[in-house]
Amino acid sequence: MQRISGEWKRIVLGCVIVLACVSLAGCAVHPRGPHGPRCDEIEATATIRQPTERMKVLRRIAAFEDLTQHEQIYMVNAILSWGFGDDKADAFMILIDNPCCTAETQSYILEKLKYYDLGRAEARVIHRLLDDEEQAEDVRK
Hints:
The structure is a single chain. The protein is mainly alpha-helical. It has one domain (2-140). It contains 8 helices and no strands. Helix 3 packs antiparallel against helix 4 (69-80) and helix 4 packs parallel to helix 6. The longest helix has 23 residues, at 2-24. The protein is globular, with a radius of gyration of 19 Å. The N and C termini lie far apart (56 Å). The relative contact order is 0.10.
């Protein structure tokens, strides 16, 4: 009877871990501070299972010129919550080119991109942020 109990404990623990991972997958980290008016829209993108549709909504939100600092950081987290690729780079380009995009947001993007293997899409974002290929090369190190 003791052996069965141990096996059940492992099975239940495994199920709990899997459920936790599934429920957290794709959830963007909401930054501290007062929520902005677009936070609910950003949060809702986590429920969109189709990646192209999710990124379409995130690109639309990134274009709003009244995004608060809080919302900008939340956008960065939401964009990165599903990995990286050309569609994510496009969303970052919209956010970076947005007049409301702050230096703090740009620094935050650079900091987050350090954790990714730099491919073509990531390099596009870094080059846009730094506007200098040599500086982009330094970030890779």
